[in-house]
Design goal:
38% helix, 5-stranded antiparallel sheet, 17 helices, alpha+beta, 665 residues, elongated
Length: 665
């Protein structure tokens, strides 16, 4: 603990108990502390924003609080501050609930003594310090774990990943370990190139319980092939039963490629001198043959011993032999390689075109001792070159046509984008009719940003009666043409369901059945989340249903509180189009004048920054909370700017849609 005076914040509505606590702190022998009292939770939270405290003592029953939920509110405001909860009940279960809620201690108010209070404060601060140290240690461990060069894994014996670090995900071509675990569900069939390689892995593990340097070719996510080396051990329980395999993976592709290059070089050398179809020979300074490979001997129809020591004049017509030796002398005199295409006529054969390369040979002293020549028949190549020229001309024409088609596709996508934007509300309904838009009882606001040319987000706003408005928002997975087509279908279906629009639960249930009936024939269902609400400006009653969609936020302008709209049953309900008989529950809430309901799609908060940190829903709620008193348009724009600033250059990777429904004051 610091040697400075401690600052203690007491949130307590009972003035008498507050004086008692102040007196006890004053009587403490080893606790040098200043006490600040707050009569309710609101004042206490305000004090946390104004000043620094070392510990909070909270009465669990403050009138404006929510019981143990107050602990979460304080931790949201000051996450690194230890909390001691005081209450009237002497019940071990209550104490456990307090600790589970995030507090460091629970004190029974009637049993508090100066010594007990002093110990509780000191122990709470120390326990919190240890908790923070442990958390920092865990963060450092995960940082090291995720930044190792080697991949680390745990798998079931059946071949499913239980754990993987970031390095393994990178080696296998996945963006995150979670994507690897979800995408690669069968190692035996989805990873190894060689069939049965996983079975060999299992056999060795069963025999030895460990494997070192198990080298294999594997498919990355993009189906490219790399080499890996695995080290693994079997993890068993106390009774010797196999629990899982754990080990490391190293990308050895470069090493394998280097070794393969050495092997290729050796094979190439052997091929050059004996097995390649090229003709290879060597001559000394007098231009007599000192070496010839089998291909050259076959072209001369001579044995090797009949070639060695001879000259070109012994095998070729005079004019060709003179040409060959003229080229030889050029290499021997200049010391430079010589390459040409020339006519060649083997004994008893027809003339042909050959590609010739001649290079000087040097002794240890650097002096030229002869030359080496290689030549091969390129008659067919000459014919092939002409064919290639014709094909290239045809390819150029095809590329021109393809560019024209691409331009047409881009024009089609632009038109699709324009059509999709016309599907969105072009103007908002006014309540009651014929009120001017700025005098309407409901004020609507929206922001819509597709990630691609066309998007998978959609919303609609309609008048259900003179007093009631219906607002629908949905998010189809992805942000391409398929998603846009599904949103178009949903728009058409929702128009047909206008008779059910006053009952959100029935509306979503019927929409789900209709969408399921369409998508089941495609063989590839599209994940579609949706939220629908019906709000009455006259009564302030808000009825809504949720199909797996992010919970909209209710901004209570009177209390500046922001809370998600949760289902009355307390449970989530499935997305649309997945289960034919899914039923959706209608829940209710009450709107006060000035309140705002903020609907949005997950593209708003599923944003990463350069450090791969996620802008969470909790950060979103905090951002709205800070702007609770702003008008909807200003709130939306400031919030979007905050998220863009958080993401840096990354920006939004998914479609973003925000819709605001504000009950006029």
């Amino acid at each position: 603990m610091s040697q400075d005076r401690l600052k203690v914040l007491l949130i307590e509505h009972d003035a008498g108990f507050a004086r008692t606590v102040r007196d006890m702190i004053g009587q403490a022998r080893e606790l040098d502390a200043d006490l600040r009292s707050a009569p309710d939770l609101k004042v206490g939270l305000s004090a946390l924003t104004e000043d620094h405290f070392d510990v909070v003592v909270l009465d669990v029953s403050v009138p404006d609080g929510a019981g143990l939920a107050n602990v979460s509110l304080i931790k949201a405001e000051a996450p690194k501050l230890p909390i001691i909860v005081a209450g009237d009940l002497d019940d071990e279960r209550v104490a456990l609930e307090v600790v589970h809620a995030g507090a460091q201690d629970y004190l029974v108010k009637s049993q508090i003594t100066p010594g007990w209070l002093e110990r509780s404060i000191r122990y709470a601060i120390e326990r919190h310090r240890l908790d923070m140290a442990l958390l920092n240690a865990e963060e450092k461990y995960h940082s090291v774990f995720d930044h190792l060069v080697e991949g680390i894994f745990q798998t079931t014996p059946e071949g499913r990943y239980l754990m993987a670090n970031a390095a393994l995900a990178r080696i296998y071509g996945y963006a995150t370990p979670e994507e690897l675990i979800e995408g690669l569900t069968n190692i035996g069939t989805g990873l190894y190139v060689q069939e049965g390689r996983r079975n060999e892995f299992i056999r060795l593990m069963q025999e030895h319980d460990t494997i070192s340097g198990f080298e294999s070719q594997i498919y990355r996510k993009d189906q490219t092939v790399i080499w890996i080396s695995e080290n693994c051990r079997a993890v068993r329980d106390a009774k010797g039963r196999l629990l899982y395999y754990e080990g490391t993976v190293e990308d050895i592709t470069q090493r394998q490629q280097a070794e393969e290059k050495v092997r290729d070089s050796e094979r190439l050398y052997h091929s050059l001198v004996e097995t390649l179809p090229q003709n290879i020979f060597r001559k000394n300074i007098e231009e007599r043959f000192t070496f010839a490979n089998q291909q050259f001997c076959r072209s001369l129809d001579r044995k090797l011993e009949d070639v060695l020591g001879k000259t070109d004049f012994d095998f070729f017509p005079k004019e060709l032999a003179e040409k060959y030796q003229q080229d030889d002398r050029r290499v021997l005199e200049t010391g430079e390689p010589y390459e040409t295409v020339e006519e060649h006529q083997p004994p008893g054969g027809h003339k042909m075109f050959v590609q010739v390369v001649k290079t000087p040979l040097r002794g240890d002293d650097g002096k030229i001792t002869g030359l080496q020549g290689i030549f091969w028949d390129i008659t067919e190549q000459r014919l092939a070159d002409e064919k290639i020229r014709r094909v290239n001309s045809l390819l150029a024409q095809n590329r021109k046509e393809l560019r024209a088609r691409n331009r047409q596709m881009q024009d089609d996508l632009k038109m699709a984008r324009e059509i999709q934007f016309t599907m969105l509300p072009q103007q908002y309904p006014a309540f009651p009719k014929p009120s001017a838009p700025n005098e309407s009882a409901f004020q609507f606001t929206h922001r819509y940003f597709p990630a691609g040319t066309v998007g998978g987000d959609f919303f609609s706003i309609s008048a259900l009666s003179e007093t009631e408005a219906g607002v629908f928002i949905c998010d189809v997975a992805g942000h391409g043409v398929r998603s846009a087509l599904v949103t178009a279908m949903i728009r058409a279906l929702s128009e047909e369901l206008k008779p059910l629009a006053t009952d959100p639960g029935q509306f979503l249930s019927k929409l789900n059945r209709d969408l399921y009936a369409i998508l089941k024939h495609t063989g590839s269902p599209m994940l579609t989340t949706a939220f629908y609400l019906a709000a009455d400006w006259n009564s302030g009653v808000l009825r809504y249903a949720n199909a797996g969609h992010p919970k909209p936020l209710h901004v209570n302008r009177g209390s500046s509180q922001v809370s998600p709209l949760v289902n009355a049953c307390g449970k989530g309900q499935p997305a649309l189009g997945l289960f034919e008989d899914a039923l959706y529950e209608t829940s209710t809430a009450k709107l006060a004048p000035g309140d705002l309901v903020l609907l949005f799609t997950d593209g708003l908060y599923e944003v990463h920054n350069a450090a791969n940190q996620l802008y969470t829903q909790a950060l979103l709620i905090e951002g709205v909370q800070r702007r609770a008193q702003l008008g909807a348009g200003k709130l939306f724009d400031d919030l979007l700017e905050e998220i863009r600033a958080f993401s840096g250059e990354t920006g939004f990777s998914d479609d973003v849609c925000l819709v605001g429904v504000e009950l006029a004051g």
